[in-house]
Amino acid sequence: MDRLVPSGTSAGAGTGGTAADVGSGVGRVVELLRSRGFAVVGCELDPAKAATAGVDQADARDWSPAQPVDVVTCSELVEHLPHGDHRPLIERMASWLTPTRSLILSTPQRHSLVAWTERAFHVASRRGPYGWWDPTHISVSTRRYWEQLSRAAHLDVAHRIGVHLVSDVVVKALPPLRRCQRTAHTGPVAALAFDLVYVLRPQAG
Question: Could you give the CA distance from residue 13 to residue 24 in angstroms, rounded to a whole number?
């Protein structure tokens, strides 16, 4: 996320750009945006986390910024929501953007080296269903799903970065692979990563 967030001083008018962070957690992305010069608003469902992040305590599906913003960030939230909520949320976030600006969305993906390896390990060891790292991950979806959904919301994929290629199971067996475990990749290799980060921009016209 750090390398995808531009400087706020070049993103908007005045002393800095404007940003909205959706599903802020304890505010790590909020802090990053503010360090880049953005004036940031945001929302978080958990009251304690919202207070820590300095954002509104609200459900992302109901919240909106008061004015259009230059950048919208949504990090590791959508996989916690039912599939039926995805498109409405993406469309709402897209509607907040000023022209030519960006929505940065990150989420785990279903078809990845990590998921394939861990699911195979779970089956072989009879550990039960694979939990996608977190029992609240109820809608981990495919790369194609997110890219089709973005296009349906009139957004183009400007950049796609894949993060985390090697599972903990493999690293435990082959410790030297730890150095490439959480590296970021672009191009075809990104499609195999567990976590995908998209920079989405409004379609021309």
Answer: 24
Q: Residues of the chain whose pLDDT is less than 70? A: 1-15, 205
| Residue 161 to residue 197: CA distance in whole angstroms | 5
Phi first, then psi: give them for residue 184, nearest 5 degrees.
Answer: -105, 145
The single-letter DSSP state of residue 3 is T
Strands (E), the chain: 18-22, 39-44, 56-57, 69-75, 97-108, 155-163, 184-185, 195-202
Task: Write the single-letter amino acid at 89.
Answer: L
* 194, 25, 135, 75: CA torsion to nearest 10: -30
φ and ψ of 30, to 5 deg: -60, -45
What is the DSSP secondary structure assignment for residue 183, as one 8-state letter?
-
Structure tokens at 88: 């409405």
Q: How many CB atoms lie within 10 A of CB 6?
A: 17
Contact residues for 22 (Cβ-Cβ < 8 A; gap 6+): 42, 43, 60, 63, 72, 73, 74, 77, 89, 93
d(CA 202, CA 192): 26
Angstrom distance (rounded) from CA 43 to CA 47: 10
Residue 89: helix, strand or coil by DSSP?
Answer: helix
Q: What is the pLDDT of residues 77-135, one digit of tens each?
A: 999 999 999 999 999 999 999 887 899 999 999 999 888 888 888 888 877 777 788 88
- Longest alpha-carbon distance in the chain: 58
Retrieve residue 156's tokens: 């183009």
